[in-house]
């Protein structure tokens, strides 16, 4: 099953179909990704997506402040393989020097808490292209398996956000994802904005915590 933010590598038929249906302005970027066998990123399904298709995105490095994102739909058989987002320790190698020591401290304090990176830091690590700017955030995915782990992970993120521009999501066992900062600021029993593979909706914090009970 494909999840938002997962990496997806296309097979030759998938790339051929993607290029065949691409806008002329996007062809060069797609050819570059195919030539390097870089992954695309799985996104939320759009309302027009047909059964058996996968929605993907390709984000190019910022160009004069502009961020171009190419949306694709391919047959699920076009995906040669998929994998979770990069572990933070793997993505950290691409971080600028100003983040090196704070990231090392975050990873040391994380212990058994698993953090994965997506967004600009992960893309720079995977491609070697320059995605990070002075205003970039560090987008993290945190998938707690229990209430104690949720609370420990939130404490970890809040502590290290004092030294790093941390952003990202908590992903609950059913795939529901909540911005960790929104979760931090939400009062018990209130509703938060949830994103999953197919929708965006409001869900109570209590019902999300019950998934971990």
From TrEMBL:
Lineage, uppermost ranks: Bacteria, Pseudomonadati, Pseudomonadota, Betaproteobacteria, Burkholderiales
Entry-linked InterPro entries: Holo-ACP_synthase (IPR017557), MdcG_C (IPR049180), MdcG_N (IPR048903)
Segment forming the signal sequence: none
The protein, known as: Malonate decarboxylase holo-[acyl-carrier-protein] synthase
Domain Phosphoribosyl-dephospho-CoA transferase MdcG C-terminal: 88-204
Pfam families hit by this protein: MdcG, MdcG_N
Residues in Phosphoribosyl-dephospho-CoA transferase MdcG N-terminal domain copies: 4-83
Keywords on record: Nucleotidyltransferase, Transferase
Organism: Massilia aquatica
């Amino acid at each position: 099953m494909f999840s938002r933010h997962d990496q997806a590598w296309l097979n030759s038929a998938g790339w051929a179909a993607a290029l065949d249906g691409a806008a002329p302005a996007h062809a060069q970027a797609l050819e570059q990704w195919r030539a390097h066998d870089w992954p695309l990123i799985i996104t939320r399904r759009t309302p027009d997506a047909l059964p058996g298709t996968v929605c993907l995105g390709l984000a190019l490095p910022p160009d004069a402040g502009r961020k171009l994102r190419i949306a694709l739909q391919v047959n699920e058989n076009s995906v040669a393989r998929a994998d979770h987002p990069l572990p933070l320790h793997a993505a950290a190698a691409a971080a600028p020097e100003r983040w090196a020591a704070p990231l090392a401290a975050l990873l040391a304090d994380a212990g058994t808490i698993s953090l994965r990176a997506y967004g600009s830091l992960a893309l720079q690590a995977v491609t070697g292209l320059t995605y990070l700017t002075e205003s970039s955030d560090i987008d993290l995915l945190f998938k707690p398996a229990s209430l104690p782990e949720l609370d420990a992970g939130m404490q970890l993120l809040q502590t290290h956000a004092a030294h790093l521009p941390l952003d990202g999501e908590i992903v609950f066992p059913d795939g529901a994802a909540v911005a960790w900062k929104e979760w931090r600021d939400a009062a018990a029993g209130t509703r938060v904005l949830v994103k999953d593979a197919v929708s965006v909706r409001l869900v109570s914090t209590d019902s999300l915590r019950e998934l971990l009970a």
